[in-house]
Amino acid sequence: MPAILDARGLCKRFGAVTAADEVSAAIEKDSVVGLIGTNGAGKTTFINMITGYLKPERGAIEYQGRDITALPPREITRLGICRSFQIPQLYGSLSVWDNMMVGIGIVLANARHGGFFAGGRIWDTRPVPGYGKPAAEVAEHILARFGLADYRHRNAQVLPGGVRKLLDIALTMVAKPRVLLLDEPTSGVSAQEKFAMMQMVLEAVRAEGVTVLFVEHDMEVVSRFAERVLAFYDGRIIADAAPQVALADPEVRRHVVGRTKAAHA
Amino acid sequence: MILLRAGLISFGQALYYCLGAYAAGALGRFLGIADIFVQMAAGALAAGIAAFILGFLLAKYRGIFFGLLSLALSMILYGLLVKNEALGSTDGFNILPSPLFHVRPGAAWVRYAVLAAAAVVSVGLALAVHRYLRTPLGRLAPAIKDNEIRVEYMGASARYAVHVMYVIAAVLAGVGGALAATTVGHIDPDMAFWTTSGEFIFITILAGTGSVVAPFAGALIYEIIHTTAYDLSPNTWQLSLGAALLAIIVFLPAGLWSLVSKMSTRYARHP
Question: Do A92 and B161 touch (CB under 8 A)?
Fold first, then answer.
């Protein structure tokens, strides 16, 4: 399987702290990759570098053969790499529906369907790129996929935590990404709901043919849903293998999982 | 209203209001062009060009920095006009009654003709703004106010969007200034003074940003409060304005238009 995303020799320091030390990883198309590691190990720095929030001091990132190392987040998003956040980043004063419409409006404007000044008919007539359907149908489709249809009129800032997480991920889907980076998608969600939520999210995004990288601290979630694991420690990738192999790796057990959890996993 | 929807409070919108007025006035004073529509176009153009240039600087800033920088720019214009003898210094200058498409109405009708032209332009611009609110850019404004990081991560440039909104707001203020100049018949540097910007902010907070009708209603209510308070108490009328603003902020933080929005939502649920 060809690599859709290729990070080579990424380095990033924050003062005396090395957040990325020669990090290299080729991500295969249509794969589901779990990123594990303790807090400060470099997982989120890796995501931030791929999505353009941080510029690596050394190294390069290629997406579908194109160098995206120096691009800002909005251009990386336009190319097809989207991300969700550990703390959901929503438009709090808007309803769930309007959150979706803001995103769809950006996609339509970027597709040059009249740009940012396109009139009211744009919402009713123009097909949203990647979906081939008008805005309202796309919003309905995505909200239904993520089980959010009943919340459409609710204000985003009053949604329960798990629903906010789902909306945060659903918003990424309006841009029809090819690669999706999920930063702790189940954090703050109860243990009982984690698996069902992860199942729903992966079914929704995989149905659209999206390659997924997700940061996760729960090793049961990782071993169940990831096809491959990248284990981070001290700014380095210390294991890159299938979940069973990576979680059994002595270095991963010592620095990331802990012996008890490793045995459980 | 356009800027406030994006969370940007411009303490210097009077800059473009005054530029529009002086562009309109200068056209008549120095070039002899007094047609009201040409003057309004000149006001819009002058304000738009100035905002386009200054927007490269201002679109980088948010919050108090945006507010104070815009205030500083308007006060620079005020200072320049006060020192400029050719433009009447602190006294400003008068503008001749305007013809409409080369037709000069009789003396008894000129005031009504100018007001009618002003009304037509205002309604036309209000319809344009109403349409703008439904465009992707119009919908993006509250998103920028709520979460600019998310806007960037969804593929839009918040700075570009703010720059465009800034120019639109300036063009509208420029036309407003030209309209005020032609309807009042006089312009002076006070049009760029910070209290003029304060009036615009007062009206927007009073009315809210929920609809294009809101600023018109807000301006009307502001003038009613202003006139009544001045009539009743010429020395302390500012106290009444302050009390009205305080009441709005405490009881209706989204402005008077939020009452209309609530009623229409309730009606939609229980017709």
Answer: no
